[in-house]
Amino acid sequence: MLKFFSDYLVFVQSHSPADYNTISNIHFLNSTFSVNKTNFKSIPDNSVVILDDFSFSSNKRFEKKIEFLEVINYILRHHNITLFLLVHNLYNTNLATEILLAPHIFLSYTNLGESILR
Questions:
Q1: Domain around 48
Q2: 3-state SS, one letter per residue, for the chain
Q3: Digits of tens for pLDDT over the chain (118 positions)?
Q4: pTM to 2 decimal places
Q5: Number of folded domains in the chain?
């Protein structure tokens, strides 16, 4: 699956960088990278961004959600950037409603994830 990205610039934020060692053109993002307009200005058009174990921090959650929606609804589409959020618990992201209403593909391998998707 990760070989699919070989034609794109790939940016990854992960606690386990070794999980992504099969991608040749990978760039690792620092741990402070978040989904906001300022950070996404540094991502070139036609790129793939993978945020592993994504969630919002507890401080300024509402402001971060607004920034997240600005990136999702405008920047990604207009700059042809594909964003993968690897989420281990949909409720802990504090984006359950927004994620379920967004254009996406969900892959789930847990009973809870499957029941949410139904």
A1: 2-117
A2: CHHHHHHCEEEEECCCHHHHCCCCCEEECCCCCCCCHHHHCCCCCCEEEEEECCCCCCCCHHHHHHHHHHHHHHHHHHCCCEEEEECCCHHHHCCHHHHHHCCCCCCCCCHHHHHHHC
A3: 455 666 788 899 988 888 787 767 789 999 889 889 999 999 999 999 988 888 766 566 667 778 888 888 889 989 999 888 887 766 666 666 666 666 655 555 666 666 665 6
A4: 0.77
A5: 1
Query: How far apart, in whole angstroms, are the C-alpha atoms of residue 31 and residue 69?
Result: 20
Tokens of 19: 């999980």
